[in-house]
Structures are given as C-alpha cells and as structure tokens.
Amino acid sequence: MAKMTLDQLRALRAQKQGELEKRNVEGKDIQVIVGMGTCGIAAGAKQTFDAIVAALEKHNMAGRVVVRQTGCMGLCYVEPTVEVVMPDMPPVIYGKMTSDVAEELVVKHLVEHSLLDSHIFDRPAIDIVKH
Amino acid sequence: MHCTVGDFVLDVVQNSVEAGSDLIEVEIDEAPDGTRAFIADDGCGMSPEEIARALDPLRNSGAKHPGRKVGLGLPFIKQAVELADGSFRLKSEKGKGTEVRFFFPASNIDSPPVGDLVSLFVALLGMAGPCEMKIRRTSARDGRSYEVKKSELVGAVGDLASASSLSLVRQFLASQEEG
C-alpha cells in the first residue's frame, strides 16, 4: 500500500460522510472516556481504546460517539477503566475493561442499552475528586 | 510496568497534555543501535524540587490527584532504562516546558519492544485539548520515515475526538507505516 496523502484522506472522509448521511445518524450524543493514566496504560488501556474505536466502526456507531482520554480516575486496581455517558442511560464507570471485552461494552451498553453488571465500578473514588 | 516503548511515550504525553501545553512534539527513531524517544512540550514545566519529586514514585506533589502521592509514570521509564542499560534525560523549566528523552539499546535483552506505533499515534492524536502535536517517526532499519501534524489531520477529517475521525486517522497512519 502506498502512503496516503492528506488529499486522499479528505476524499475518504467525504465518502464516509456521504454514507453517514444516508444512514441519517443524529449528532454525537455519546461520550466514551478511557482512563489513560500510568495505571491505565500499564493495564492495556491503549489496546482498549483501539478495540473500542474498531467496535464502534463495526457496529455503525462511530458517527454518534466521541472517544476521549483522561488521566487516572482513581480506580487503579480495576484498570483499564472506561466511562460511558449517553442519553437514556446512567453514567457508568466500567473497570477491568480490557480489549477483549471492549466489543461487548459497545454492543451491550451503546447498542442494546443494557449494563455490563460484572464490570461496573461506579464513580471515581472519593479521595481523588477535587473538593 | 509498561510493556512497550510506545506505552512509556503515551504516559509522558498524557503528562504533557495535563501540563496545559500548546505544542507537543514526539519523535520515535528506531536506529540500528536501539530505540530513541523524544517528547517536548511547552506546558507548565517543573522547578528542580518538582523534578525530584516527579522522579520519586512515592512522594509525588499530589497536585494531580489530591489525596494520593503515588506517581509512577517517569519512575517507570527510569527503572526500565536502568534495567536495560539505556539512558534517560529529563529537562524542565518552570513556566517554559519539559523535555523527556530516553534510549533503549537493541543489544540488551531487557529493552522493551517498540510496540504498535499506529495505535500509539492514534491514541496520542486523540488526546483532549486543542493543542498542536507534531509526530516524527523514523526507522533506519527499513528506511521508514514520516511526519504528521495534528492540525493537518484535523483539517482533513475534523475533530479527532470523534470515533469516525479516529478510524480514518488510523487508516492514514497505517498507510504511512506500510508505505
């Protein structure tokens, strides 16, 4: 494969946008936040980030989702951690969210609107929140 | 502990983002004698006392996380470099910015692998904030060389927080890496 130029990247985006419009997807109303502190990185948060982006693309959710990274959320013992904020669902912080469960997260939480009970670790630990 | 050179770089760049940088430069060079990484930012920087604490795993300033004094990012790099007989340098000036460079010799069995650089760069470019980022990647081993600028990619695909933009950037970077 030859190196893609920025113009080719622009063209690819225009083509993708066309597809999005055809599917009539609403604005970006879902936020997925991956903890990318030292603890997260050591536990494989980069692979999780990757797997989430791939799963969103696979399940046609990419157009609706903003994927962000943040530092340590204080739950270092259950890294990688991922927070999901979306309409009609409570904001949840998931723990032990390794790349092999990333697709399950996308399908269950984002597509089917149900929770992954075994991975819920709620909100950031109290001692890490600025008072 | 981190598995790859890329993980160490990601950790340092996360620091640069949290330091409120406007410009972050990242270079990774795979030379015949080993792998070099260089990260420079124009963020808040550190005083000599703060540098000493940043390198101490258990006596962090607590500025980032009130209530916790553990900070393992830079100490991890130092430890890994010492294990592999490499080198590590940290230069920082309060109010000016910080430079981190490290080297892992190819000849040492304890040197970590470079890792998946496409994934690394996607994660770096997707980090929060409007700051500019320049990434330079060279490999003398196979003559590979390319440079990307975050602002140019944003100009081509839009906000990089969007999952669809990140997928496009991944394709773009994969082609740079293979081309």
What would you say this structure looks like, in words?
The complex is a heterodimer of chains A (131) and B (179). Chain A is α+β, with helices and mostly antiparallel strands and 131 residues long. Chain A has one domain (26-128): Glutaredoxin (3-Layer(aba) Sandwich), CATH 3.40.30.10. Chain A has four helices and four strands. Chain A has helices at residues 6-23, 38-42, 45-58, 99-111; strands at 30-35, 65-70, 82-85, 92-94. In chain A, strands 2-1-3-4 form a four-stranded mixed beta sheet. In chain A, helix 3 packs across helix 4. Chain B is α+β, with helices and mostly antiparallel strands and 179 residues long. Chain B has a single domain, classed as Heat Shock Protein 90 (2-Layer Sandwich), CATH 3.30.565. In chain B, 36% of the residues lie in helices and 26% in strands. Chain B has six helices and six strands, in the order αββααββαββαα. Chain B has a six-stranded mixed beta sheet with strand order 3-4-2-1-5-6. In chain B, a hairpin with a 2-residue loop joins strand 1 and strand 2. In chain B, helix 1 packs parallel to helix 4. The two termini of chain B are 32 Å apart.
How are the SSEs ordered, and which strands pair?
The complex is a heterodimer of chains A (131) and B (179).
Chain A lengths: L5 H18 L6 E6 L2 H5 L2 H14 L6 E6 L11 E4 L6 E3 L4 H13 L20
Chain B lengths: L4 H14 L4 E9 L2 E8 L6 H7 L18 H11 L3 E7 L3 E9 L11 H9 L6 E8 L4 E6 H8 L5 H16 L1
Helix pairs in contact in B: 1-4, 4-6
Low-confidence stretches of chain B: none
H/E element sequence of chain A: HEHHEEEH
Query: How big is the Rg of chain A?
Result: 16 Å
Low-confidence stretches of chain A: none
- What kind of sheet is the major sheet of chain A? 4 strands, mixed
Taking Cα atoms only, what radius of gyration of chain B do you get, to the nearest Å?
16 Å
Oligomer: heterodimer
- Give the helix proportion of chain B (percent range): 25-40%
